[in-house]
Amino acid sequence: MELTHDLKRSDFGSKDDLGSIMTESEAMQLLENWVENEKLVFHMKQVGHLMKVYALKKGYDEKEQHLWFVAGLLHDADWDKWPDEHCRKIIEELEARNQDPRVIKAIASHGPRFFGVQPESEMDKMLYAFDELSGLIHAYSLMRPQGYESMEIKGVKKRLKDKSFAAQVSREDIADASQRAGISLEELIQFVIDNQLRS
Ligand SMILES: [Fe+2]
Ligand SMILES: [Fe+2]
User: Fold this and answer.
1) Which residues crowd ion ligand 2, with CB under 5 Å?
2) Is 97 helix (H, G, I), strand (E, B) or coil?
3) Coiled-coil annotation: which residues (predicted)?
4) Model-wide pTM > 0.85
5) Cα(180) to centroid of ligand 2, in Å?
6) In this structure, which ligand is nearest to the CA of 127?
7) 78-109 pLDDT, tens digit each
């Protein structure tokens, strides 16, 4: 398959910037400047939240949790203004701002089929794993009168099988991401149901 947004790069950021990471309010400011689409902002907040909670549950320290959070929060920041240059724009912006190379690499590898960059670190893999799946589960919550309440794995799996539901969500990527993360789809779904940011 043709790589539509091939970054044609494999190195991101600089090792000198390890540990250099913007604050939450700086990241929110960037989103405010770049993203008008509120649904997209919400999607990024959901993914950022899932990333942070995952890192927390893994026992990582606050600095590491923040790293994961910022990667999730900014992963689609350029999609609204520059869809054809996704995710090159945000990568260049973060490099210009001397941000931690691990965050930049995670963002660069959140769509290996498109960007041609493989998720390698645990953070890379979890960003890829949460991205599409959290979108589908959110869409499912919106069609349920009770939202996320009493949502079950089997309901989500039914929506995954129904290709006409949230048709833009790639089932192929969800399965691929789960395999790469080494976490079963069921476990990922349950984690998203339990921890996803609501409304
Ligand atoms: Fe994306
Ligand atoms: Fe996304």
Assistant:
1) 76, 131
2) coil
3) none
4) yes
5) 17
6) 2
7) 999 999 999 999 999 999 999 999 999 999 99
Q: Give 137 Cα–ligand 2 centroid separation in angstroms.
A: 13
What's the CA gap between 148 and 152, in Å, rounded? 9
For the chain, what are the domain ranges? 15-195
- Say which ligand is closest to the CA of 44: 2
Distance CA 159, CA 93 (A): 36
d(CA 32, CA 27): 9
The encoded tokens of residue 17 equal 């910037």
Fold topology of 15-195: Hypothetical protein af1432 (1.10.3210)
- Interatomic CA distance for residues 14 and 135, integer angstroms: 31
Q: How much is the pLDDT for 46?
A: 98
Neighbouring C-alpha atoms within 13 Å toward the C-beta of 149: 4
Q: Say how many Å lie between the CA of residue 159 and the centre of ligand 1.
A: 21
Q: Tens digit of pLDDT for each residue in 35-94?
A: 999 999 999 999 999 999 999 999 999 999 999 999 999 999 999 999 999 999 999 999
Cβ partners under 8 Å of residue 37, min gap 6: 80
Task: Measure 131 CA to ligand 1 centroid, in angstroms.
Answer: 8
Cα(108)–Cα(115) distance, integer angstroms: 7
